[in-house]
Amino acid sequence: MMNKNLNGKIKLPSAIILCMNAMIGAGIFATPALLANSAGPAGILAYFFVVIAVLFLALSLAQLAREYPEEGSFYLYAKQWSGRIGGLFASGSYILGISIALGALIKIASSYLTQLVPYLDQAYATACLIFGIYSLNIFGPKLVQAGQAFFISCTLFSILSTIVLCLLNAKMSNLTPFVPHGAAPIFRQISTAIFSFFGFESITALYKKVDNPSKNISKAVILSLSLVALLYLTFLGSILLAIPSRVFTTSTMPLSQAILEMFPRYSWLAKIIAISIFTALCGVLQSLLYAISNLAQTFIKNMNSSLTNSVVRSKYSFEILLTCMTAFITLLSFSINKIGIFFNLASIFVILAFILSIITLVIKDTASIKSKIVPVLGLVTGSMIFLNAIYSFLLEII
Prior knowledge:
This protein is mainly α. The chain has 16 helices and no strands. 75% of the residues lie in helices and 0% in strands.
């Protein structure tokens, strides 16, 4: 049972768990192959910068939630300094970024599906996966949402079992050469690293529900991020210690396949991990598609035009938007082949929404210099990730 006090508010331990649940996602399983393939063992250094950046961004969002507790999130925050158009641009940017992230997760999930069912063609596996996730949101969202605890259990099992297996077979020699491709690829993997932390922005939804939020939200952010960062770094570090970078022959190679090739005697465990990761990915895909369809509903409501109002008033408004979002994600999945493009585009649009929102705190006249320190640091680190993602995207397409 969730830990609450007598006035019905969520206490700090429960807030930490909720923050961790929001951050721990199946996206972490996409990063080992891309980091190892592009930057070698040194790719893990990108995570250290991202942890610091996410801390400042999350604390800034918590401060925004305190200043503007009404519902609306990015639309409401950016609107304070840029008006209705700026608010729509920020919220639309976030929706677009998460939609692109969904396309990346579908690519990753389909690679695990083809590993589990080898005779399936990649394109056919992608189509089946998209149709299945769409059908779950149409016919059984409540059932799947009720099983979110199961999906997070699959994620944690995959992470923890991989850590144990890899640490038992760790070799320091696998870390050499540590920087095989130079320093530049490390910085380009920042977009990959932050992809694993998407979800921390949901902290704004907790503000009204947490006891003594002005103090406990910041504590929950710091403690939950520290625990998730420790888990992620241990996960990636153990993989780098046990599996040489050369084993990851492609940037989309499933982790379970690398484990199978490196430790064939543990083929049974590799199979279980593959099933767990695929199940976790399906859970994330379902919940994200459901969430962005609802966000799209709020977005077109804020547009307040005759056309969008007719859609909002429709009895089947959610189904219409769900179908549109699914069609868009399908188009992305089949038109973009490089997983790096997905990561960079998702980072560009999601971080842009953060930047546009945090500007509100930085330019607020009534705020003290002290209260602006964290937002300024969030704006600086967020801008660095944003510019890095643009540069990396241009390199990918060139």
